[in-house]
Every structure is written in C-alpha cells, then in structure tokens.
Design goal:
By secondary structure, the chain is an all-alpha fold. It has one domain. 77% of the residues lie in helices and 0% in strands. The longest helix has 32 residues. The protein starts with a helix and ends with a helix. The N terminus is likely disordered. It is a multi-pass membrane protein. Keywords: Membrane, Transmembrane, Transmembrane helix.
Length: 300
C-alpha cells in the first residue's frame, strides 16, 4: 500500500514539474514557430500530430473506445481548451513578448474561480482569494494601462482581449471536464487534441488564407520549435496537466499559474532577447503575488 502511494506521489511530482517547466517554455516555442507559420495553422499542426500519436498509445494501452456521449464531451472540451484556449495564446505571442503573454495567462485562477462561483458550484471565494484577484489585476493594469504613455511599448494591446477570451474558454473547459462523462485518460486527452487541432485548422482556412504556403518557408529554428511543441509541450506537458486535473487537488494543480510566467519571462529574456524593464518586473511581481494569494485562499 505504501509503495503504491509512493509511486503515485512520484508521478504527481513529475507531472507538476512537467507543467511548471514545459508549459513555461512553450510560450517561447510558439513565439519562434509563429515567426514563419501563422498561429492557427501552427496549433493545428501541433495538436493533430500529438493527438494522433497519443490516440495510438491509448488504443494499445487502454484498449477501450468511448461511447457517443463520452466522445462528444471530449471533443467539446478539446475545442475549449485547445482550439480556443491554447490557440489564442499562439496568436498573442505572435504579436507580443512571450513573457508578457504568460503574465496575462497567469490570471487564469481568477477566471476559473469566478466562473465556478457564478455558474457551477456557487461557492463564494474566500477573502484571501478575492484579495489575490484584486492584486493580480492591479499588476496587469499597471502593465497594460491604456491611459498611460508607454513610448517604449513595441506591441499592440488588442491581443490582450484575445487572451482573455481564450482564458475564459480554458476556465470553462477546466470546470466542465470533471462534470461531463469522459473517456479513459489517454484516449480522452488524444480526442481533445484532435478536436482542438481540427477546429484550429478550420479557423486557419478562414482567418489565415495562404497559411499553407508558409510551410515550405519553415527554417531549422522553426522546425525545432515545432517538434519541441509537439513532443514535449503537447505529449508531455498537456498530458501531465490532464492527469493532474483528474488526480491532484485543484489547489496544487493551479500552482502552475505562478511558476509558468517566471519560466517564460526568464527564457524570453535569456533566449528570445525580450527586454524585462523595471515596469515589467514590478508588474510581474504584483501579478505573481496575486496568483499566490488566490491559490492559498482557494477552497479545495
């Protein structure tokens, strides 16, 4: 019995580290790849390949196939989490520094708790959680204040709205995944990836005419980033998150939200040559403090 618990704890630690580090690094990976390939097309290429590989693994290991209701549920969650949630991040990093995008996504716990309170559990957040939400959004306002003059800003603000839409969809998908009938773990994750990939491909045809013509222009750097996103970011990172969402306490799982931006900011500065100004540093510290307060105040 103790051995089983030890194995479970080891797997939980591995999955947490994977989500902490790998997801933090995918922001820069998407930034590099979208220099050549448009965001929706990149997301479709990434998750269609990763989902196909994982579906094969699921069929061999789990040897089960979902019923109609489970299949539809997994597809719906996949569109919310990947088709919209993840792809909007790819859109944003194409126009904005990857570390700053990670800071906006760090506010995810606020959306999850707010949506849960309004539409699902109806459980009022604790005072500490509410304080964390206020502190987090103060940090984001300091960073993106549209009323201030930021002469050094080299990026537009409209992708912030895109990320917010993606965050809301991700929050809804996260809250629904434990409330809908879902397939077995690996098969469910694979179907989610494939559904999100198909949705992204359809959106690419609509919003990115000529996107397929960029594939022959892929550089060695872009291919390396793409392969990293598929093999590490999707197969290891997303699968780890999917496992945690089913098996780990929500408060523990949500801690990725304040680790990812630290990793993304560091990699964006060290590898992507993204500047970290004093304003960005102060705003980042405030946002991360807010997320920590949200997590500590969360009622598991």
């Amino acid at each position: 019995m103790n051995k089983k618990i030890g194995v479970l704890s080891s797997k939980m630690i591995f999955c947490l580290l994977a989500v902490y580090i790998i997801w933090g690094s995918t922001y820069l990976g998407m930034k590099i790849a979208t220099k050549v390939v448009p965001p929706f097309l990149l997301s479709s290429m990434r998750f269609l390949v990763a989902g196909g590989i994982l579906l094969l693994v699921g069929c061999l290991r789990e040897k089960t196939w979902p019923n109609r209701q489970q299949f539809i549920s997994a597809c719906f969650i996949g569109v919310l989490l990947i088709g919209v949630g993840n792809t909007t991040v790819a859109v944003a990093v194409h126009y904005m520094p990857s570390g700053i995008v990670a800071l906006i996504v760090a506010a995810m716990p606020a959306w999850i708790m707010g949506m849960d309170w309004a539409f699902f559990s109806k459980q009022r957040p604790s005072v500490m959680t509410m304080l964390g939400i206020v502190v987090g959004f103060i940090g984001l306002f300091l960073l993106f204040n549209p009323f201030a003059h930021h002469e050094a800003r080299q990026f537009p603000l409209w992708p912030v709205i895109v990320i917010v839409v993606g965050n809301i969809c991700w929050a809804v998908g996260t809250l629904l995944v434990q409330r809908l009938p879902m397939p077995t773990q690996i098969t469910s994750t694979a179907i989610q990836m494939l559904a999100g990939g198909i949705f992204s491909l359809l959106m690419s045809f609509v919003l990115e005419p000529g996107g397929l013509g960029t594939l022959p222009l892929m550089t060695a750097e872009a291919w390396q980033a793409y392969l990293y996103l598929v093999l590490i970011g999707s197969l290891v990172g997303y699968t780890s998150y999917s496992w945690l969402s089913k098996n780990a306490p929500p408060r523990l799982t949500s801690t990725y939200a304040y680790i990812n931006p630290i990793v993304a900011l560091f990699l964006g500065w060290a590898i992507g040559n993204e500047a970290i100004t004093s304003l960005v540093g102060i705003a980042a510290a405030i946002v991360i403090c807010g997320v920590v307060l949200m997590t500590l105040g969360r009622k598991s």
